[in-house]
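It is worth pausing here to work through a concrete case rather than discussing structure prediction in the abstract. The textbook approach is simple: state the sequence, then state the predicted structure, then interpret. We follow exactly that order.
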Amino acid sequence: MSEHDVAAVAQLRLAAFFEGTGRSLGEDAAGLRDLIAGDGFEAAFVARIGDTLVGTCLLVRHELEAMHDVTPWLAGLVVDAKYRRRGIATALVKATEAHAASRGVAMLYLYTWDARDFYAALGWNTVEICGSEGETMALMARRPRL
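Step two, the predicted structure:
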């Protein structure tokens, strides 16, 4: 992801994850800028069809810190609804896993509320079923591969 992508990625993320939370487009964009300006371990990936940005996925050191003391995380996977069921999410997960493997990550984690079957089909294993904000979610893990 480059600076050119930040606004579009923040817009996708805001609609998918933060609607009604009070998080602003500017706050999410600032967080994405911090991530891409970091040391290169954390990363943001984008998928495009032509010139249209259609999806994103992140590798981050910390996610829902109050829940589990494990790191790093595959986070923020989202594909625009008009472009789903085309393998884009799978490609984004694989790109994130490959980046993690290239950085020496032995185990990668994620949380999901409703995509357990999707991740399981990609080789992710459920580690724990837990609750957050009144909802049940799964903590999943996988050894990343190049």
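Step three, interpretation. The mean pLDDT is 92. The longest strand covers residues 52-60.
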